[in-house]
Input
Amino acid sequence: MIHIAKDLSDQSLPPSLALTGNYRKSQATQQRRLAVIRDGRYPTSNTTNYDNRYRYEDIKQALNTLYHQKCAYCESRERRLQVEHYRPKSHYYWLAYSWDNLLLACSACNGLKKHEFEVRGRRATCDITPGSEAFGLLHHLSEQYNTREQPMLLNPENPQDAALFIHFVFAKDGSMSSEHARCQHTITTCGLNEERTLRLWRGKIVEKLRKRLNTIVFRSTGAARMHRIKEAIEDFIAHANDDDEMYLAFRRYVVMYFLSALVNEVMNQQEGATV
Ligand SMILES: [Zn+2]
Output
């Protein structure tokens, strides 16, 4: 999970989510928004007409650009990423069409998370009435709610949550853990340590680097070897800084904690073999 800075200004709001104006799609969304607030719940059957409003193309496109077509939680790229509600619409129905509540998630994370949303304080209830000041702030309420009910699940768009990402600990095999309660909760809720998928894919990143270094050490010597090793390190760092790459949190962790040790390990192995 990495920090994603979402621009919440009116200019960046996907047009179909606008609270006012004559745009046909935003009016359709506004109708559903008013309906769920009036009914005091998000419908549980015949939801297509409601669901389609947060799946409008402009919303998907804005999220895809922001997230570089990767899941907000696990950073996997998937062809059909889903628009996901950080605060589930089953309880927070009035936030079903709020820009600061819409994230992008893969089917695995979204499927595991479902309607889970544990909070430490008192869970927020709807205090919005159409036309009120709070109604006008519907795209900017997360910050307010975060202090009131203290969610356990980390939100990649929340800078305070992003400050906790340093508590995620990775191993070279791609597994992850944490001593921090909220990080731990996020790993469990979204299955971020899934052995057969995520852990394996992340582990392959280190394996690939190790293989490349091994080949260099095996095939070259002296200045040429040093040059090629430097190139491999620079390449790895460049990928760790490329927003289009998957698993950036892990790649950056490798750069910080494993990279130099890995190079030394490979070099020493070769020296040991030639003695
Ligand atoms: Zn995911």
In short: Residues 10-152 form one domain. The beta strands are 82-85, 102-105, 169-170, 176-177. The first strand starts at residue 82 and ends at 85.
